[in-house]
Amino acid sequence: MSNLEPVSEKLFAKIRGRFPSVTIGDELGAVTDEPRLAKYFDFDYKIYPDDFIKVFTDHLIKDFKIQIKDVKIKKLNIKNIFLEMIFNLENKSSMECTVKTLDIKLFKTKNYKEIIGRSELKNNFKVSSNSINEIESELKANIFQMGSVLLSNTIGNKNSFFVEVSSIVEFNKMEFPFSIKKRIEYNPRTLEIKLK
């Protein structure tokens, strides 16, 4: 009796308890019906990718954050208003990642349906492991749409609009979507902007 025989018998009993159809093999791989000689176990084990992906994405969401740091009016012209948005991309993981897209949309109301401005970052960029990266993006909005929103919101005493930031981030050749939504309040007299 080898030292592994009791282990083989216990392992066989545990596997047989979960998987009724188990074929066992000895140390040479030959099929045997004696559990104490089992060194190889063949059973039908189904792997559900969703179980692994959920664990991975939950961990990823905890380790990767996109935050809006600041919003400022950069410039105005006859047709458009340009807002400068500054983001912090924090990667707490030990893995480097690549941001494939960064799409910013400005909405009139909190139902996030009527887009009044947009910005897209078209170039990929790398985010080092255990780092905080600051990204600047310029959002362009039609001054007439923005003006009508500002006017109607001011009349309605709402003084806010809404922003959605969507991103595709690649970790280990797998792409994951991230998204945040924020309310942005403004002072109609000074045009000072605050994040909520």
Helices and strands, in order, run as: HEEEHEEEEEEHEEE
Overall geometry comes to elongated
Which spans of ≥5 residues are poorly predicted at pLDDT below 50?
A: none
Characterize the largest beta sheet: strand count, sense, and whether it forms a barrel: 9 strands, antiparallel
Strand content: over 45%
Average of the residue pLDDT scores: 80
Kindly provide the radius of gyration, computed on alpha-carbon positions and rounded to a whole number of angstroms. 28 Å
Return the structural class: alpha+beta
Labels describing this entry:
12 strands, 9-stranded antiparallel sheet, alpha+beta, 196 residues, 3-stranded antiparallel sheet
Descriptive account of the structure:
By secondary structure, the chain is α+β, with helices and mostly antiparallel strands. It has three helices and twelve strands. It has helices spanning 5-18, 49-63, 143-155; strands at 22-25, 31-32, 40-43, 64-76, 80-91, 97-107, 115-121, 125-127, 131-142, 160-171, 174-186, 193-195. The strands form two sheets. Strands 4, 5, 6, 7, 8, 9, 10, 11 and 12 form a nine-stranded antiparallel β-sheet that branches. The chain has a three-stranded antiparallel β-sheet with strand order 2-1-3, with helices on one face. A hairpin with a 7-residue loop joins strand 6 and strand 7 (115-121). The protein is elongated. The N and C termini lie far apart (70 Å). The relative contact order is 0.14. The mean pLDDT is 80.
